[in-house]
């Protein structure tokens, strides 16, 4: 029996798309009514990186003086562009009907909630700093520091142009580790939750216990978010989402880090209340 | 790579082995004695026990050691009785050997030793030179001695028939005593033993040289050891110019010995005709004034140890100069050194008596880099045999002082008191043989469950015994026995051993330390004494329980360590323990792959894609796809004459195709008459990319369907090997993307292998076997899979096996990529290192002249005096390179005696003139002669293949089955490289490697085998005759007997392939034959029908589709040899088809379509085929006499 290869997971993750319907906020001043704009958004990319078309579309119906920096909200919540699109969706809109209805705003930028994003170079800087942070955790930063400038560029261009092969030709070096150690030094991960004001949880966590046991997603959650690990007889209170799926708690955390990390090399885990149906 | 064993003896005489894949010393529990010396080779281990007798341990194998005895029954005709056993007085014996000179009645055949048994009774051989005889097996002649025929004629006056009977060696995986023949004089006990010499000759198979030294310093050579006679036949004394204390024999012709006074002896004159050698040469001790005490030799190395424990390496040693040129002092102080396979070196440290491994020994750096201590624990199982053995030891004890101590010690043992009192007597072998043999799981077995068990044991032992604890289990059984004596009724369990009073050991520890300081020193002074187990029981305990084991002897002659071998011997941390247990399990399938969490992720991801994307595919993509270009410079083999390499610019443009899949165009920009031009190829039209490495250029060939028809690919050369691999990997990914192919090959895949050993795989479409309009096979897309194989076989359940050039068997892991495919073009967790070894041959040619006889001065018209087989190309020993940069030499040039036609003693073959047919003995008419030299080279690569040790194979076949069939156990048959027929047990789609071999007896060696869809097994014997195996079924996997099927008249068959019902064979003259009259009730069929000539190989699939490798195929531009072809017009009622369809080639060696059970859709809309390609309708294969270079880029 030949099962799907782990490589296929990388492709599925990369090519994940969320259908989105962009509508202009009624609070915006327009010259005429704006049609909604439909787009397939790559889960692993960033909102401001892939919405040039959306901007162009709505600018057509607006006066230049009414336009400030574009930002997005979902059901009144401002969407942080510096979280990957898939994370925003999982966190705010899991279990809702598709397409995802995103409201486009050009005024009243919520300075408290969002970072400014004036150009793609801001996204690039954010993306590269994430990769560097992740590699610092995984390999004390040795792999990313050994790369040349053009290699860094290749990672960014791969994401920007949706070039899976180009990106992974370089990214696989970031996913290597010495066999005898059984995994990375620490797993770069972030746990997001809607119920808290904390932006996310991030701590040092090794993939292998001091006794040599492979640690799992369940082990990670037990330490950092015990409420997400429910006993067998309890009703499920939380959903633990990565890329729109709920991996089993016995999934090795190292495998998850290698296969379900976002291009920024972080494993983004969204914890949302379980639907009460 | 299969694991192999390092053997060692500790100072108490216990034998341990350490697997290259293992992490602990396994006690050889079968040894009921204590041993002082072991010498191991891959198939067996010889030893000297403390009773001074020699013992042999033959490793069990799935293929038994069996020997065919034969004798002839002779009869003469007389008018009264007809044929009767009344012969003329001048005639031969009624029962004789084949020559008739030796009287051999059936009753005179005796088993050579008690370790043999008869398989069955005598029976008559009814096969005569590949032809079945009449019942009774008689062959007739006019008179003795004469030519016999199977037909009785009017003048047949005598007849004879051959009786055969098999005997089988039964003493495997156990120590057996080799009886000493010296009954006359006082027994002279053996003191040292060394085994080697297996590289000297191939004939007889498994030939070994065994040398032994007696306590009086005499040297003995054991004659007649070979595969069929593992014990050898007789000891012969070899005279020596002094008293020898130790001897060492390498895998080749090196034998060195150490003299009592510290000089060394080198044996000269060892060759394939004289394993014993002829004379000794003396070599001075490395250090003046300090004599040598120990020597160890390999293929090209000699190591020595002097009395001051210094280690020496001998420079300049090789087959031509066995004495070498000078000594180099090495770092480290050792008591002994042993050289194993690949000239790897082990030693036992003087200070700590630990086993050391010499790291960094390579062919270019034979002296290695550094000593690394082997620190692995010993298994915790207690040895009960060791207790009784301690009394046996006293029996063989030789030295006064020790006898007292040992017999004291033996009182402590719980063995039979009678045996103890018999101190000084030899112990009868029968007792040893009758002793109970505890059964334990063996690490060397290929059942991974037992590996898990033994792994766990190891871990437990480590956990239970803290390193600084008062006792380690290896030592505590002695204390345990003491306790035992004190309270004889007490039954000991492992848990009790922990409760030993620590005072015991503490008291003794002090004593020990004083001895430790002086003991080894004494031993070294008296070198011959040091070789005996000088440590006796009374002194054992002192070696503090927290000390690591003390070793006395180590032998690596059966231990294969290569540069890529990962040894886990040097520290025993938990992470490596985890690794090795993972490795142990991976042969069948990685458990992680079947884990529920993984399945869940795969399932959820595809659900997610469906949920989030399926209904929204009409949405616009957020990121537009753009064109991506990669450029480079290359050389191109010009399409027009004169053909030559031209510099070109090379560019690949990739873009997204209409349906979202990627596509691309390849551009080759060249200049012609100062004008810039280009040639382009659409990536989706490329059918295959073939790497063509040779020693001068890094080239590859690109084929499209059109180029396949022309037999004229685009040939390109990259500036470096690395660039070629980069381009090939990129182009390959690009081609696969354009066709939407990714991931591992499907179960239905068609596999093929080129003559360079490169592996290609093609995904069959439904239309491939459609009738009447199949997809032409030149349109098949082939992608490369890493690895190097000679043969590959598959079936539609996804079981795929291969055989390398060195006959190693490999099983497909389900992965893809490897080799130069990296990153995304390759799977990661199921790619392994693969090695292969093959020989390169050159010929030495000589011409006779009346003055000087044969010389290397030929006629001006003659071929080169050193040439290739054709004589057209000059090939000298110095200028001949390995086939490509991927290969490296691993041996020196040696004369090849295994040439068809036979050779004389120096390897020469004679003929009247070049080129001609050669024969092995010189006649008056011969004026030229030649001999073949061979040199082995080795390739190391990676691929989705895992070795199936240990039996080397020459052919395999796997049951072909329908697309929906479910077979629990997949029948898989194979032929070993010695011609044994084997049946693999435990093969399932989850465990494609299976578990073990079942040997199926035959009366002669076989060379080809094939099993059909309903378990019909056909095979071809070495003599070219066909056999059908009766009664094979799912329940009776091995069947019951062979039926001899006559070959087509005058032809010797070479290969067979059986599909659903069709049976096809290929003979040695390249004819393809179809078996007529095969029905369920008469599966043997009735006659052979000729189908085609120029056929090299055939593969018949589960749909009865017939594919071949054709020898010569003419294309529109060129001719190609080794071409994949498919039979057209094969229908259920017309299994023979009508014509050939030509696919990829030349340079192809093997194809298997036995996985492709994809039946074409029943209802087919007839569509127009490209009728302009008149090849499809071509009749018999055409040949041409104008082969051009491009037709066979891969080479044949």
TrEMBL record, chain A:
Alphabetically ordered keywords of this record: Acetylation, Apoptosis, Autophagy, Cytoplasm, Immunity, Isopeptide bond, Membrane, Ubl conjugation
Cell location: Cytoplasm; Preautophagosomal structure membrane
GO biological process: apoptotic process; autophagosome assembly; autophagy of mitochondrion; cellular response to nitrogen starvation; immune system process; negative regulation of programmed cell death; piecemeal microautophagy of the nucleus
Pfam families: ATG5_HBR (PF20637), ATG5_UblA (PF20638), ATG5_UblB (PF04106)
Residue ranges constituting the Autophagy protein ATG5 UblB domain according to the UniProt record: 186-271
InterPro entries on file: Atg5, ATG5_HBR, Atg5_HR, ATG5_UblA, Atg5_UblA_dom_sf, ATG5_UblB
Main location: cytoplasm
Segments forming domain Autophagy protein ATG5 alpha-helical bundle region: 122-176
An example Gene Ontology molecular-function term: Atg8-family ligase activity
Record's protein name: Autophagy protein 5
Organism name: Cirrhinus molitorella
Automatic annotation (TrEMBL), chain B:
Pfam families reported for this sequence: Hyd_WA (PF06462), Pex24p (PF06398), Tectonin (PF19193)
InterPro entries: Beta-propeller_rpt_TECPR (IPR006624), Peroxin/Ferlin (IPR006614), PH-like_dom_sf (IPR011993), PH_domain (IPR001849), TECPR1-like_DysF (IPR010482), Tectonin_beta-prop (IPR051513)
Keywords: Autophagy, Cytoplasmic vesicle, Lipid-binding, Lysosome, Membrane, Repeat
Major localisation: membrane
Family annotation (SMART domains): DysFC (SM00694), DysFN (SM00693), PH (SM00233), TECPR (SM00706)
GO cellular component: autophagosome membrane; cytoplasmic vesicle; lysosomal membrane
Domain of life: Eukaryota
Example of a GO biological process term: autophagy
Annotated compartments: Cytoplasmic vesicle, Autophagosome membrane; Lysosome membrane
One MF annotation (Gene Ontology) recorded for this entry: lipid binding
Family: Belongs to the TECPR1 family.
Protein name as catalogued: Tectonin beta-propeller repeat-containing protein 1
Organism: Cirrhinus molitorella (mud carp)
